[in-house]
Amino acid sequence: MTRLLLALLLFAAGVAAWAVHSGRVVVPPHWNPWAPLNVAEAPNWLTGHKLQRASSEPALCRAALAASTLAHIGVDDTGDGCGWQGAVRVSDERFAPTFTLTCSAALSLVMWERHALQPAAQAHFGQPVARVEHFGSYACRNVRSARGEGERRSQHASANAFDVAGFRLRNGRQITLVNHWTADGPEAAFLREVRDGACRFFRGTLGPDYNAAHRDHFHLDQGPYRICR
Questions:
Q1: What's this model's pTM, rounded to 2 decimal places?
Q2: What are the chain's domains?
């Protein structure tokens, strides 16, 4: 009886999915898993799926990024072992200086800045973040971690990762991981909220709680492994 019920539920779900995908049933784009990601809309339980879909379909990623406010241009593919595929050059004053990042990671960066970072800044300080201080993205190197992993390429080697060192608010106030992660006050609470927000949009989010190598920055990537530390 249980197997029959499960089979009926799966069949019903399949029929519903076919009806939506074929256009026979109209679903608002926000709740349609086949609709492109709209960066302006509030995230929901489909956002992760849409980010992953954009990651595997370059045209979708480029279209979603083009509809955002991020200043960027496409760049040619390059490299063998190191280098990037489907990347953009970000030249936005909110993230100066310029850097190269895969479209997928750049799209996650846009979602994080809009839906996690800026709301957290408003909640804790009553003003927006004017600039994200960073250590860049691309670096042709291996993973710097536990024994036995030294030969594995870092996500930085394919411009698929971005390191955030801190933030400058509109009034000039600076908040950095190295100075404020373990401090008392709103800065530490803000940084933890920002880290948790990054975990919603990036597959890999590493910070000071992960190891000493990340004591002064958040490592954000769209690699194959999901981790939030």
A1: 0.84
A2: 76-228 (3.30.1380)
